[in-house]
């Protein structure tokens, strides 16, 4: 009796699910795969969909033992779009929640395959993985039971390229100065870039009476969740590279060249679903021999260009 009770409890507490679930998206010629890096630094690949694309595929439920069975209250597949607040789960919201029933309540006694199809789904927001917020899309399979639901999520990526520049472009001109000590001008020919552009600029030294050790360019992302007084903003320095080493002299001109694609960037996002915004800034920094830092920051606008074959 004791042995039987022990086995029963062991089965209830330690045994894993009686089946595995696999989600496979239909292969479409020309469909791109995106490499996604999560906050822990791990990378994975997922298929890329555009706004309005059908999301179709197959689901395989594989029984792990030949004589096993799964009593269930129904099997369902869902397409979920969610904006997650990574600091406060209570502020997480679903903006898409579509579902299809695969099986009514019953018993699974053998491996099964199902097809799913969510046609012409509006996916107007891009996938995003930030410090405060994550916007993601996934297929969710649920085997409902009285206890211990069996679920499987399979993520996909959404990009929304556009045909035209969404912002008015204009040159960037900035000045950094300390009276009678330092006067520097930064100049960039543009302020709006697609994700494959090259940022070109120049730095002019009009007055140099302090000892500059080096100059660097930073790309900063500012992520804001919420609005008004409750808005929370976090900044992240995405890259830092040196564009000058050594002391400049008056009249010297230093060229700046930065390839946008060399850093994992997204388009500029403005008030997505009235929940969050993402902005990017160029930050030019001068460091003197006493490690004092002089900097100037300027916002740039990024957009995802629509490719000809799309």
Structure description:
It is a single chain. With 310 residues, the protein is mainly beta. It has 2 domains: 19-158, Sandwich (Immunoglobulin-like); 172-303, Immunoglobulin-like. The chain has 1 helix and 22 strands. It has one helix spanning 2-14; strands at 19-25, 33-37, 43-49, 55-63, 70-72, 74-85, 93-103, 106-108, 112-118, 128-129, 133-144, 150-158, 172-178, 182-188, 192-194, 198-208, 212-225, 232-245, 253-259, 269-272, 276-288, 293-303. The strands form 5 sheets. Strands 2, 3, 6, 7, 10, 11 and 12 form a 7-stranded mixed β-sheet that branches. Strand 17 (212-225) and strand 18 (232-245) form a beta hairpin. It is elongated. Mean pLDDT is 88; it is low at 1-14.
Q: Would you count the extended β strands for me? A: 22
- Residue share in β-strands: over 45%
Shape: elongated
Biggest sheet statistics: 7 strands, mixed
Summed up, the domain count is: 2
Structure annotation, total helices: 1
Q: What attributes does this structure have?
A:
mainly beta; Immunoglobulin-like; 2 domains; seven-stranded mixed beta sheet; 4% helix; elongated
How would you concisely characterize the structure shown here?
Helix content is 4%, strand content 57%.
SSE layout and pairings?
Elements: H1 2-14, E1 19-25, E2 33-37, E3 43-49, E4 55-63, E5 70-72, E6 74-85, E7 93-103, E8 106-108, E9 112-118, E10 128-129, E11 133-144, E12 150-158, E13 172-178, E14 182-188, E15 192-194, E16 198-208, E17 212-225, E18 232-245, E19 253-259, E20 269-272, E21 276-288, E22 293-303
């Amino acid at each position: 009796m004791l042995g039987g009770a022990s086995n029963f409890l062991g089965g209830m507490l330690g045994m894993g699910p009686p089946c595995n679930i696999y989600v496979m998206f239909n292969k479409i010629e020309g469909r791109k795969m995106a490499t996604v890096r999560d906050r822990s630094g791990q990378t994975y690949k997922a298929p890329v969909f555009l706004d309005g694309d059908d999301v179709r595929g197959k689901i395989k439920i594989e029984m792990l033992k030949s004589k096993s069975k799964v009593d269930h209250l129904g099997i369902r597949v869902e397409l979920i779009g969610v904006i997650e607040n990574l600091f406060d789960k209570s502020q997480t919201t679903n903006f898409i929640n579509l579902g299809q029933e695969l099986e009514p309540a019953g018993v699974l006694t053998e491996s099964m395959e199902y097809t799913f199809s969510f046609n012409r789904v509006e996916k107007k927001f891009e996938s995003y993985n930030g410090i405060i917020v994550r916007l993601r899309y996934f297929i969710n399979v649920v085997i409902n039971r009285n206890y211990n639901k069996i679920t499987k999520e399979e993520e996909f990526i959404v990009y929304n390229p556009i045909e035209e520049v969404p912002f008015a472009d204009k040159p960037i001109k900035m000045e950094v100065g300390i009276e009678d000590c330092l006067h520097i001008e930064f100049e960039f020919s543009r302020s709006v870039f697609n994700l494959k552009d090259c940022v070109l600029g120049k730095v002019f030294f009009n007055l140099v009476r302090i000892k500059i050790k080096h100059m660097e360019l930073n790309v900063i992302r500012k992520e804001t969740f919420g609005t008004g007084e409750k808005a929370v903003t976090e900044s992240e320095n995405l890259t830092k590279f040196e564009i000058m080493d050594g002391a400049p002299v008056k009249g010297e001109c230093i060229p700046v060249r930065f390839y946008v694609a060399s850093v994992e960037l997204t388009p500029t996002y403005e008030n997505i679903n009235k929940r969050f915004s993402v902005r990017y800034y160029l930050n030019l920094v001068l460091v003197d021999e006493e490690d004092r830092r002089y900097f100037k920051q300027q916002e740039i606008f990024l957009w995802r260009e629509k490719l000809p074959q799309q």
